[in-house]
Amino acid sequence: MVKQVKARRANRTPQVNSHTLWLAGLGAVSLARKQAVKAVALAQANVAGLRERAVTLAGELGGRMSAVKAEADARLRPLLARFGYGGKRKPAARKAPARRRPARAATGRRRKAA
After folding, report:
1. Are 86 and 77 contacting, i.e. CB atoms less than 8 angstroms apart?
2. How far apart are CA 30 and CA 38, in angstroms?
3. pTM exceeding 0.90
4. Which residues contact 14 (CB under 8 A, 6 or more apart)?
5. Least enclosed by CB within 10 Å: which of 1, 84, 92, 106?
6. CB–CB of 63/54 below 8 Å?
7. How many CA atoms are closer than 13 Å to the CA of 64, on its beta-carbon side?
8. How far apart are the first and last CA of the chain?
């Protein structure tokens, strides 16, 4: 005959006291700290990678822009010269600002009314 094993039921409910609550809180704080440290390290790595990409793209765009500017200048120069805008103009001379008279100092004396 085969022996039958009865399933044990856990009727015991876990007791919550101050010690277990303290340990659970300490564990939660520890996990949060570890995850925060990992998140900061990951963010720093991403920032460094983004910075490198931005510098690379800026260098490429700078070279392209200078080439485009030179080509546009070469194509537009004859057209602008035809309409009289080819040479560089001197900036208009500025007039010196009018001199202000210094304010009169208040002496505290008043004229008598006649």
Report:
1. yes
2. 13
3. no
4. 20
5. 1
6. no
7. 6
8. 140
